[in-house]
């Protein structure tokens, strides 16, 4: 695979870790009261994989992504990040919560999450947003974080917006800034939660281009998206979720070229 | 003293009465003002600390913390401040001394300043709890979620994200509380603490120049308010630095 070559070339992902399992999830369930949103979803992503999750609204794909960094606590299932099993304990109401807050914080600080609504911190300028986590969570020196942050802003084409507050930027600029913020923590895995869904149509392209570049250089990514064409182009593996289970999965050519399940066929027809 | 009361009227007399040097009462008034400001500052600061914990308890606390905070804010906001002050001042100092005696220590004389700050701060805390709770709720929740998603600990998130992000929403309410705090110090006159109002009453009572002294006191309170407004305005401007002007959105 071409992706593997790029992995070795990426300074953030040393060749030794090549093809190691970054995320491993087994039989994940998530219940909100009486509603079971995830009914046993499993997945695994090795370094350099780009996994796209597609599915209709309410299929559970965003919830699945949010369970990976524990923005939602899964009701049951095994979650292993960076080869580390996350320990859970019962919350006394039939659910479970992480046993060790610090373990969760450590894992989260290695997962670069990009949200649908950008969620940049409004009281900080763009560069302050980018260096916030490296400096205050990861303990990086401010100068060092600044240097990395400026490189990242240049890479997403936002050097000119360095000292601008998010409220004064377009949605596309904010989302590219949010991607720079995620990259600044030198994440093992990037998590994208419908990164273009809140954008005006003419701004979608600039964000997708940044994400595609990241995929090309071999960055490990998990991408929840409605952009089928894009998923087909960048993903190495596609999962189609329906009603909380994986209805079908496989390489993009197979999934989009010759879908087996009737539902997936219908889904592809309606969205394209 | 005696010749001060001989000249109760006339414009020169008025300035003589307010003069900060010996026969005049200006120094007394200024001393009262300083005490009032000390109390107001202390009470406001204590109110902010209580308010921060109170709002966190109400928003994020377990059932017990939530209930305690609810009882506190309900009671304090239900009881007239004057009653609250008399109750806490006398009952509070008595209680502390009983506890000390019970533990075998000597009774202590609690300073009026400390007692005043604690009493008013306790009242301010209840209102601050509600102001800060509303301000935290006004933060776009995605910003809090992003902080969690990047592994911030609760304390770091409070310091770096929640408090600065809620500040622009809290400031108008907090500015009110500060101004109320400067004026509530006058209530401490009833427990004999010589802040500005009590000093004024003594000066006016001794010289019989009521108009002069109460107008002077009013002017001092007004001056405090005007000065505060200037400061608060610049603080709010700084806190809103990332936010587009409201006028632009009209």
Automatic annotation (TrEMBL), chain A:
Name this polypeptide is given: Polar amino acid transport system ATP-binding protein
Keywords: ATP-binding, Cell membrane, Membrane, Nucleotide-binding, Transport
Family, similarity comment: Belongs to the ABC transporter superfamily.
Topology term for the membrane: Peripheral membrane protein
Localization per record: Cell membrane
InterPro entries recorded: AAA+_ATPase, ABC_ATPase_HisP-typ, ABC_transporter-like_ATP-bd, MetN_ABC_transporter-like, P-loop_NTPase
A cellular-component GO term for this protein: plasma membrane
Record lineage: Bacteria, Pseudomonadati, Pseudomonadota, Alphaproteobacteria, Hyphomicrobiales
Organism: Phyllobacterium trifolii
Residues covered by the ABC transporter domain: 23-268
Gene Ontology terms, MF aspect: ABC-type amino acid transporter activity; ATP binding; ATP hydrolysis activity
From TrEMBL, chain B:
Domain of life from the UniProt record: Bacteria
One annotated GO molecular function: transmembrane transporter activity
Keyword annotations from UniProtKB, A to Z: Cell inner membrane, Cell membrane, Membrane, Transmembrane, Transmembrane helix, Transport
Location (main, coarse): membrane
SUPFAM superfamilies: MetI-like
CDD domains in the cross-refs: TM_PBP2
Residues that span the membrane, as ranges: 37-57, 69-90, 110-128, 161-180, 211-232
Entry's Gene Ontology cellular component terms: ATP-binding cassette (ABC) transporter complex
Domain ABC transmembrane type-1: 33-232
Pfam assignment, any one: BPD_transp_1
Membrane protein topology class: Multi-pass membrane protein
InterPro entries to which the protein is assigned, alphabetical: AA_ABC_transptr_permease_3TM, ABC_transp_permease_HisMQ, MetI-like, MetI-like_sf
Compartments, as annotated in UniProt: Cell inner membrane; Cell membrane
Family per similarity comment: Belongs to the binding-protein-dependent transport system permease family. HisMQ subfamily.
PANTHER family recorded: CATIONIC AMINO ACID TRANSPORTER, MEMBRANE COMPONENT
Name of the protein in its database record: Polar amino acid transport system permease protein
Source organism: Phyllobacterium trifolii
């Amino acid at each position: 695979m071409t992706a593997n070559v790029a992995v070795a070339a990426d300074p953030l992902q040393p060749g030794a870790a090549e093809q190691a399992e970054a995320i491993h999830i087994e039989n994940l369930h998530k219940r909100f009261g009486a509603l079971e949103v995830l009914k046993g979803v499993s997945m695994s992503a090795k370094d350099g994989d780009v996994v796209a999750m597609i599915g209709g609204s309410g299929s559970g794909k965003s919830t699945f992504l949010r369970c990976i960094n524990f923005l939602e606590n899964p009701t049951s299932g095994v979650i292993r990040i960076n080869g580390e099993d996350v320990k859970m304990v019962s919350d006394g109401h039939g659910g479970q919560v992480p046993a060790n807050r610090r373990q969760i914080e450590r894992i989260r600080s290695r997962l670069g999450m990009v949200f649908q609504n950008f969620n940049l911190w409004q009281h900080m300028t763009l560069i302050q947003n980018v260096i916030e986590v490296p400096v205050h969570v990861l303990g990086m020196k401010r100068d060092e974080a600044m240097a990395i942050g400026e490189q990242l802003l240049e890479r997403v084409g936002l050097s000119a917006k360095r000292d601008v507050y998010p409220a004064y930027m377009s949605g596309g600029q904010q989302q590219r800034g949010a991607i720079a913020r995620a990259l600044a923590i030198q994440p093992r895995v990037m998590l994208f939660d419908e990164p273009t869904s809140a954008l005006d149509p003419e701004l979608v392209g600039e964000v997708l281009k940044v994400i595609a570049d990241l995929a090309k250089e071999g960055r490990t990514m998990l991408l929840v998206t409605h952009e089928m064409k894009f998923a087909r182009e960048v993903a190495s593996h596609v999962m189609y979720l329906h009603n909380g289970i994986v209805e079908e999965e496989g390489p993009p050519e197979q999934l989009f070229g010759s879908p087996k399940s009737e539902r997936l066929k219908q889904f592809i027809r309606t969205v394209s | 003293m005696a010749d001060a009361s001989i000249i109760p009227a006339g414009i020169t007399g008025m300035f003589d009465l307010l003069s900060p040097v010996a026969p005049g009462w200006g120094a007394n008034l200024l001393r009262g003002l300083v005490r009032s400001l000390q109390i107001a500052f202390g009470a406001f600061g204590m109110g902010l600390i209580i308010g921060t914990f109170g709002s966190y308890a109400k928003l994020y606390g377990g059932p017990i913390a939530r209930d305690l905070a609810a009882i506190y804010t309900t009671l304090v906001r239900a009881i007239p401040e004057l009653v609250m002050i008399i109750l806490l001042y006398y009952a509070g100092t008595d209680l502390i001394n009983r506890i000390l005696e019970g533990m075998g220590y000597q009774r202590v004389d609690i300073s009026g300043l400390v007692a005043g700050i604690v009493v008013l701060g306790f009242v301010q805390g209840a209102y601050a709890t509600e102001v800060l709770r509303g301000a935290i709720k006004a933060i776009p929740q995605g910003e809090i979620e992003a902080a969690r998603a990047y592994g911030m600990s609760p304390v770091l998130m409070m310091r770096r994200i929640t408090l600065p992000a809620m500040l622009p929403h809290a400031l108008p309410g907090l500015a009110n509380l500060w101004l109320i705090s400067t004026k509530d110090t006058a209530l401490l006159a009833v427990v004999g603490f010589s802040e500005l109002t009590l000093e004024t009453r003594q000066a006016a009572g001794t010289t019989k120049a009521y108009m002069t002294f109460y107008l002077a006191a009013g002017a001092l309170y007004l001056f405090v308010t005007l000065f505060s407004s200037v400061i608060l305005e610049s603080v709010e401007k700084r806190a809103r630095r990332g936010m587009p002007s409201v006028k632009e959105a009209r």
